[in-house]
Design goal:
M1 Pyruvate Kinase, Domain 3, seven-stranded mixed barrel, four-stranded antiparallel β-sheet, 3 helices
Length: 270
């Protein structure tokens, strides 16, 4: 097999908003630094995502000078920024799927900006450093923890897998539909399905569970418009136990830097 190299590195600081492409990133205990450390919730503390609110695709995020900046992709003058460390008040109980966690509201003015955009009352919360939201214990033998991501610290997809899908589509889709953290070049389509463990710059990753896909991948990340593809086509050849799989969820051991260009060394295969 030809060698595998990390070709893309992405974080999504605010869950379900636009991602940031990086050349290098620090990987911490709960995943890539700043990845999904913030999240929008409704008044009851339930998490809010593009699955229901497609317009969130229109909000892009960047990080500059220790500030997080959010702006509208079609109208960059509509923006807000705040310090990465900014929070107010006591912890708020928040819910992601079946998990109860804790969040700290960033500020009332930031929450109002998002509420005005969404035309409903929401809060922007940050995960406190002390919060230990655990990965599903069936897949996390060492009590691994996770951010506000759906369930796992990182997601990996091979370029060949997307190329294979796009050969079946009349209109190609970009990788941003699938919101991976790690993208790699080399290997055949869906070779990541066979990963058991691999190393990137001495950090050990385990591919513990295929990623089940939902309607979010049908939302154009530049326009917020929902269609049928690529979910419809994937259903024809990537269905397992009535779920549509694309990419692999990861847990990891160790902390350190990983960079685009790093060789991905598979230690053992499924």
């Amino acid at each position: 097999m030809n060698k595998l190299y990390l070709s893309g590195l992405y974080i999504y600081p605010i869950k379900s908003l636009g991602g940031i492409s990086l050349a290098t990133s620090h990987i911490e205990e709960r995943g890539l630094q700043h990845d999904r450390r913030w999240m929008l919730t409704d008044e009851e503390g339930m998490f809010i995502t593009q699955r229901k609110h497609h317009e969130l695709a229109l909000l892009q995020v960047s990080i500059e000078n220790d500030e997080l900046i959010v702006f509208h992709k079609a109208d960059p003058h509509k923006k807000i920024s705040f310090p990465l460390e900014q929070t107010i008040g006591e912890g708020i109980s928040v819910k992601i799927w079946d998990d109860l966690s804790e969040g700290l509201e960033v500020s009332e003015s930031v929450s109002k900006w998002f509420s005005d955009f969404m035309q409903m009352k929401v809060r922007l919360v940050k995960m406190p450093a002390k919060e230990k939201r655990k990965v599903d214990p069936r897949y996390a033998p060492n009590d691994e923890i996770v951010s506000f991501a759906d369930g796992y610290p990182c997601l990996i997809i091979g370029e060949a897998s997307l190329n294979h899908l796009n050969q079946k589509l009349s209109v190609s889709v970009p990788m941003d539909r699938f919101r991976p953290n790690l993208v790699f070049s080399g290997g055949e389509a869906h070779v990541e399905d066979r990963f058991n463990t691999f190393c990137l710059n001495d950090i050990l990753f385990s591919a513990v569970k295929p990623c089940a896909r939902c309607v979010l991948i049908t939302i154009d990340q530049q326009t917020g418009i929902k269609g049928q593809e690529p979910l419809k086509t994937l259903a024809n050849y990537r269905r397992v136990n009535n779920k549509i799989m694309f990419g692999q969820n990861l847990i990891h051991q160790g902390k350190g830097m990983i960079s685009v260009g790093d060789e991905l060394n598979v230690l053992d295969w499924k």
